[in-house]
Amino acid sequence: MPLDEARVAEYKARLAERERVIRESWVRTMEAKLVREKLDHCYETEGVNHMESCKELRDRYIDMLRQNRVQGYKHIDV
Fold first, then answer.
1. DSSP string, 24-60
2. Mean pLDDT across the stretch 7-12?
3. FRET pair for 33, CA 20 to 30 Å: which of 1, 40, 71, 74?
């Protein structure tokens, strides 16, 4: 019996960790989406000066695209 309880506890802990990592991944993705919306707004409002005025947002968005990818549970378990 104690062996089965240990396995169940280990399995539950692994599932909880998996859900936490996936949730964090989605939060980072949604942050990138918000930055993209701010970038779109900046492009629309700045017009021809958007290359200079929106540079910080553009660089931040590019960095977020590289780093904030949604990774599923298979990436965690393998």
1. HHHHHHHHHHHHHHHHHHHHHHHGGGHHHHTHHHHHH
2. 90
3. 74
Looking up tokens 């960095």, which residue turns up? 63
pLDDT tens digit sequence for 28-41: 989 999 999 999 99
Question: What is the distance, to the nearest Å, from the Cα of residue 6 to the centroid of all Cα atoms in its chain?
Answer: 32
What are 31's two structure tokens? 């942050």
User: Which pair of tokens denotes residue 54?
Assistant: 């929106």
CB-CB contact of 42 with 57 (8 Å):
yes
Tokens in use for 48?
């021809």
Quote the pLDDT of residue 72. 65
The span from the CA of 53 to the CA of 46, in Å, is 7
Summarize the confidence of residues 12-21 as an average pLDDT: 89
